[in-house]
Design a protein that fits this description.
Layout: H1 8-44, H2 54-100, H3 115-123, H4 146-155, H5 157-164, H6 166-177
Length: 178
Amino acid sequence: MSEKKMSSSRKHHLKSLMLSIAKGLLEVEGREREEERKRYMAETCPALSLPGGMQALQELCRELHHKIDVIDEERYDLESKVGKSSKEIEDLKIKVQDLKGKFKKPALRKVRLSADQMLQALLGSKHKVSLDLRANLKQVKKEVKEEDKELRDVGDWRKNIEDKAGMDGRKKMFESEA
């Protein structure tokens, strides 16, 4: 409590004083800006005097076109300088991040590539490698044993049920047992 509190009326009075001073400064600054603008326009754009003859008008148009061309060239040069400097700034930002050792991982998006496209991306377009996985597999001939074949035939329960269905099936059962 070493500092004394200011009363609200005192705060309000000081605030209004600050605002009135700021308003005056802004008005002065606005007037100076307007005077500067008028002075600049008087220097760079002299008053236009339209000549009466056709030849004089054409000459005036040529002068204006020449001035427009010069200004366009300057604008193009400045744009190219700004573009170069912005690229330089980006490169320097990347170098700074490299030196810091902290990398922002970019958001990766899922890309579907076939195996051939992946190899082409890794090896480049000069190397043509086709990845046919089935070509590298060994072909095995399956020998079917006769015993296994008989077991499969007997083991098929669907055939047995179809055969035994109805009276004909029961009749066949008794005939095969006898």
